[in-house]
Amino acid sequence: MAETAEIILDGQTYQLPVVEGTENEKALDINKLRDQTGYVTLDSGYKNTGATKSAITFLDGEEGILRYRGYPIEQLAEQSTFMEVAYLLIYGKLPSEQELTDFNSQIMRHTLVHEDVRKIFDGFPSGAHPMGVLSSLVSALTAFYPESLDPNQSQDEVNLNIKRLIAKISTLAAWSYKNSVGHPVNYPKNKLDYVSNFLHMMFAFPTEDYEVNPVVTNALNKLLILHADHEQNCSTSTVRMVGSANASLYSSVSAGICALWGPLHGGANQEVIEMLEAIQQDGGNTQKWVDKAKDPNDSFRLMGFGHRVYKNFDPRATIIKKAADEVLAALGLEDSPLLKIAKELEQAALTDEYFIKRKLYPNVDFYSGIIYKAIGIPTEMFTVMFAMGRLPGWIAQWKEMRENKEPIGRPRQIYVGEKERNYTPLNQRG
């Protein structure tokens, strides 16, 4: 017999089905609650609400577990590539060698963008924030591929739009950076792999050759994998919500980019670097700032420590710390003053009882900010990098929502405004 829970309202008992996930997560199914009782639930921020059943990503914050399609993030980061992980998330299985080759080649075939997109791009002011440019240009792709608006498009058409978006976002992201610094854009070189091609478009100049550093490529590949999906977060839920209205993939992802742009969601790694720079400008006394963080009367917080979901440790942080050390060594930056401050903060968090007791360990944002800074990516591009990494997860979530024929999202509310009142003409108001 199926497990149920009882709820008593106005003296009447109602049975609520209990839904159990493959990892023993349990939820109360309240789909019929309003119809049966007239009540709705109130859960500001949706912290206790499961809005969907998903087979993509499993996250256990208490145990520090993150898995994509059942595969531990540690194995994927060490052994896989960003393109293989993208395939895994979107299609639900690891590809064969031929499937991955075809996937890569089909994506690289679409890295160029329509020249009319360049005209839109050229209309942005020099210095425009790259996230504003990126979200606008991704949304504009719907105009160039109007067939994406058809909610009944075939699976082949859906797959084509998926590959187009993965291909073009790296070009648009790099061009957004070039626009912000007033440099001429670089066209993609499809002989390079996905990550190396992006680095070429970011950092190459027409006047000189650019050689991609394999250590940098490896670290960036890991970062993109670690950011590829993270269950039902703010931007992912935004993509699913917008997509539930049968909006195109481009429109849905553009909305996700805008959500990610919010500093409470995607801006943490940028805040890490800004904090390190502030400490450096103050004289570099790390202990002073550690003491400020421990002072209950001081509003200062150490950025990049602790996590809202992971109550023990962030499994991604352990992986990316090693990559950060490799990048700093390869680029000869071990003695950088900024990175020296970061190491001292890291040591304090790992040894100071105040941080240990509160489980305020360095998280993925702490180390990713250091890597981005080391390889020359400016702080205003950090969230763009996050968006590039998160794209396969957004696509997978949009695709799952579409294939499961989920209904349009329509949250309820508890109205706390004025009761009915009569309109008073303007000339009769006091």
Please work out how many helical segments DSSP would assign. Answer: 18
User: Biggest sheet, in brief?
Assistant: 3 strands, antiparallel
Total discrete domains: 2
Q: What class, by secondary structure content?
A: mainly alpha
Task: Tell me the CATH superfamily of the largest domain.
Answer: Citrate Synthase, domain 1
Overall average pLDDT: 93
State the total count of DSSP E strands: 6
What name does CATH use for the topology of the largest domain?
Citrate Synthase, domain 1
Q: What amount of the residues lies in strands?
A: 5-15%
CATH-scheme architecture of the largest domain = Orthogonal Bundle
The Cα radius of gyration reads 24 Å
List the helices and strands in order. Answer: EEEHEEEHHHHHHHHHHHHHHHHH
Per CATH, the class of the largest domain reads Mainly Alpha
Categorize the overall geometry. globular
Annotation keywords:
about 425 residues, mainly alpha, Citrate Synthase, domain 1, three-stranded antiparallel β-sheet, about 5% strand, acyltransferase
Topology record:
Elements: E1 4-9, E2 12-20, E3 26-28, H1 33-37, E4 57-60, E5 65-68, E6 71-72, H2 73-79, H3 82-91, H4 97-108, H5 115-122, H6 130-144, H7 155-181, H8 194-203, H9 214-226, H10 234-243, H11 249-261, H12 268-281, H13 286-294, H14 315-330, H15 337-351, H16 353-357, H17 364-374, H18 382-403
Helix pairs in contact: 2-9, 3-18, 4-7, 6-7, 6-11, 7-8, 7-18, 9-14, 9-17, 9-18, 10-11, 10-18, 11-18, 12-15, 12-17, 14-17
